[in-house]
Amino acid sequence: MAHEHDSMMATPIEDLLEATGSKFSLVTLASKRARQINAYFGQLGDGLGATIPPQVTSVSRKPLSIAFEEIDADKILAGELPEESEEAADEVSAEPDDAS
Asked: 62 lies in a domain?
């Protein structure tokens, strides 16, 4: 009799793709959040409090799995960065450099 193995992730990849819209967005969002979670665990004993703790209760110890669980629970969302207007970009490129 064959045993059905649980996948590494409890969250189906299809649900995560629905939440983010594309594979690229999912990978980018999850990797950035996993780095933040890893940094949080790294600075726990220092009392710095500079990063946001995991937003879900998880049995997983891996930051990437926790990030996927947060995405599935809609605790973190992919947001669009505001686009810089052409006028602002022209102003920045038109400023003279003081190299003296």
From this structure: yes
Phi, psi of 10 (to 5 degrees): -80, -25
Domain holding 65, by residue range, is 13-77
37 in Cβ contact with 63 (< 8 Å):
yes
User: Per residue of the chain (100 residues), what is the pLDDT tens digit?
Assistant: 444 434 456 678 888 888 888 899 999 999 999 999 998 888 877 766 677 888 888 888 899 999 999 998 988 887 776 776 556 555 555 555 555 5
Question: Nearest 5°: phi and psi at 71?
Answer: -65, -45
Could you count the other beta carbons within 10 Å of the beta carbon of residue 46? 8
Answer yes or no: are the C-beta atoms of 60 and 94 closer than 8 Å: no
The answer to whether the CB of 29 falls within 8 A of the CB of 20 is: yes
- Going by C-alpha positions, the residue among 36, 7, 40 that lies closest to residue 16 is 7
In a domain, 57, yes or no: yes
